[in-house]
Description:
Elements: H1 3-32, H2 35-80, H3 87-167, H4 173-185, E1 191-195, E2 198-199, H5 208-216, E3 229-231
Parallel strand pairs: 1-3
Antiparallel strand pairs: 1-2
Helix pairs in contact: 1-3, 2-3
Amino acid sequence: MSQISNLYRLQQIDSQIDIASARLLSIETILLDDDTIQSAKVAIEENGEKFKSLAKLLRESENKASDIRIKIEFSETALYGGKIHNPKELQELQLEIASLKKLLGSTEDKQLELMMEVESAEEKLMWANEGLIEAEKIKSERNAELIGEKTNLVNQLERLDSERKATLPTIPTADLGLYDQLRKSRNGVAVVIINTRACNACGTMLTAALIQAAQSTGLLIRCPSCSRILYPG
């Protein structure tokens, strides 16, 4: 294998390592991501608090209605029991009973509204709980797939690392230094193949003489535009 072929092979290995490493990092980030689960838990907490608050108001309204009914019953017993004969007292009882019945009607109307709100809040809480169950199921299935992919990537990186170590001794130190320098300054790509008489990285058209030099001289020929090393293929 020629000097430039060894460099191009190293470039292929390093590019695969870059891709696998980036994907591995992405997988680690996704595995740690708990936003969906946390959002579902927040929804449960918020809906749960809303349900408890409304349920408490409903109980208070029911107790208030019960107290009013007892007062009405007590007043009606006094009104029709025959023990009170004073017309003024009887009139006051009638007015009190009318006022209590009006208050009871208003309280029962409010109670009906609260019952509907409690029912709606309970339904939302149920959906929030189901949302958490679904989010946990999706995460579990997703994580199982990602962990499998992660294992494959780790194995791939180990294999590529072995190939890289085997390739390095075939490349002169000076060439390797240039390669590393270009990798850092050219977004990880130091060696590119000539594609239809052009640099495959930047697209610059190459002269016939430059292509001929890359194919036959055994020297490292570089793109006049992006300075990457050209591989004739």
